[in-house]
Amino acid sequence: MGPDSSQEPQTISQVGEFNLIDRVTAGRHQSPGTLLGPGDDAAVLAAPDGRVVASTDVLVEQVHFRFDWSTPHQVGRKAVAVNLSDINAMGAVPTGLLVGLGCPPDTPATVVDELADGLWEEAQQAGIGIVGGDMVSSPSLTISITALGDLQGREPVTRSGARPGDVVAVAGRLGWSAAGLAVLGRGFRSPVAVVGAHRVPEPPYGAGPQAAVAGATSMVDTSDGLLADLGHIATASKVAIDLRLEQVEVPQRLTEVASALGADARHWVLTGGEDQALIATFPANRPLPPDFREIGVVAEGSGVTIDGKDYEGPTGWEHWR
Amino acid sequence: MGPDSSQEPQTISQVGEFNLIDRVTAGRHQSPGTLLGPGDDAAVLAAPDGRVVASTDVLVEQVHFRFDWSTPHQVGRKAVAVNLSDINAMGAVPTGLLVGLGCPPDTPATVVDELADGLWEEAQQAGIGIVGGDMVSSPSLTISITALGDLQGREPVTRSGARPGDVVAVAGRLGWSAAGLAVLGRGFRSPVAVVGAHRVPEPPYGAGPQAAVAGATSMVDTSDGLLADLGHIATASKVAIDLRLEQVEVPQRLTEVASALGADARHWVLTGGEDQALIATFPANRPLPPDFREIGVVAEGSGVTIDGKDYEGPTGWEHWR
Lengths: 321, 321
Hints:
Chains A, B: Pathway: Cofactor biosynthesis; thiamine diphosphate biosynthesis; thiamine diphosphate from thiamine phosphate: step 1/1. Chains A, B: It holds the Pfam family AIRS. Chains A, B: One of its GO terms (molecular function) is thiamine-phosphate kinase activity. Chains A, B: This is Thiamine-monophosphate kinase. Chains A, B: It is an enzyme of class 2 (transferase). Two copies of one chain form a homodimer. Chain A is of the alpha+beta class and about 325 residues long. The first copy, chain A, has helices spanning about 10-15, 15-25, 70-90, 110-125, 175-185, 190-200, 205-215, 225-235, 250-260, 265-270; strands spanning about 35, 45, 50-60, 95-105, 130-135, 140-150, 165-170, 220, 240-245, 280, 295-300, 305. In chain A, the strands form three sheets. A six-stranded mixed β-sheet of chain A has the order 8-10-7-11-9-12, with helices on both faces. In chain A, strands 3-6-4-5 form a four-stranded mixed β-sheet. Chain A has a two-stranded antiparallel sheet with strand order 1-2. In chain A, strand 4 (about 95-105), helix 4 (about 110-125) and strand 5 form a beta-alpha-beta unit. Chain A is globular. The first copy, chain A, starts with 11 loop residues before the first helix and ends in a 15-residue tail after the last strand. The interface between A and B is large, with 77 and 77 residues.
């Protein structure tokens, strides 16, 4: 049957809060670590390590995503991916998510259904579930996610442990999300590979724990951009970081897209955020874990340089600036 | 020195995201259970019990609070209190908070400072700190809080364990927040006791673990209103609950305020939300823990009645309805 144009889509105010919570939680698969799932005052999760890793990210419509560029399903996946990436960047494995959703009353219920499907799909890829949350009325659609994780007996890999002489390495893609954003900003919808990378990042899940096992001395995910996030490590570790430009791969696909747009693919790779790659430092003269590739070195001093020189141009994203 | 009217207050877009995060986190006291606090990709908290309790609440300006009725400091305290109340209602003790804050770019930085002071003050009353979070740009001021807690080796007290024959009891205040809301809604700012109860609830911290130790079979906090929240226990436990009206105290202060406004104080007590009191059920013929007072009984069946009869009128709050 085709769509029935005589029937208006139901809004969430017509469906109501408690019915809507049922719609987005009923029949979903929880992991064995979810000891008490949605429906009570709070959730209870296993924390086998005796410690819990926790991170919160907030995504706001028109600020972090646009429904003319991404489907609700893609927005849901991205919201979970950016959060799980923070757990990955500590060297931990995720154990569960809490989702706070603020929606205008006239939001079609199908938008919330699709968003929830996206949230759940990305969560299940990481082997976890949405264990709790809150749904409220809000003038703009807002998704607030808290991810919890377990360190499996290892120490967390922080931003502050890099030491002079360490090797800097990256796992995952760089510049793809920025390329996708540039394409969308020009009004195009293809190539799908780069546009898709902006809509739904593909964090290298598993590379975080891999780095921790391999003795990573510091780690961060690329949410603000490679140079900006390396700056966070340099500042927190009180060291200097020098990138070796020849080691920083610029994918052929990005070069082609940049050429078509009159843009600079290397700039995307160096400064583009939201790819949720991992940057980590490792002791030298040891093999890197398989997902990581070397891109630079740690030295005494401060700041981030490229082949010993400052990068000219804006290096990353900061809110309200 | 008086205020310098020639100097415009700084907005958060002038201060910038990273400076603002410093302002709201620097120099604050963390509890010993905070193993890694703000400033990294994620926080790390002790979870001595091997399980972690987690709850998220989202509060939105004009929906959950108004700055013409409450100061930023009061809004901060309330946001934390409603969240810690959920941990309390599981019989757990809080261990840490994550705060996601969305603000319009033109928000005065002092508003965020005062809000942060309120968040921290209420957190410290519970002996915990804000261990992480996120600050983003948003069209409306939005506070999303995740509270984490520890069960200290006990089983969580859920909504689903009430059994016929149990006693229903309450700890904390009922109807005060609704009375305060009614006063503010008429344009008054006093009496301070009831207005203050709406601005900043006073959850009976400690009564949750107390109830768990005393063998509570079910528990919930009154965020939606006494009858509505009892309904949540009745539904989840598949039982009926009968309130004994003579046991449900209507405080003299509320009777006076209701009389002045031409309102019904008993209605506030039965249906007013946001007091964050605790309602719990206990096995009969045992002494109740000191903070609890008996208000009814659990029976076979379904639904909530008062002296055996249905309550006439709306019983609670539901979003978008």
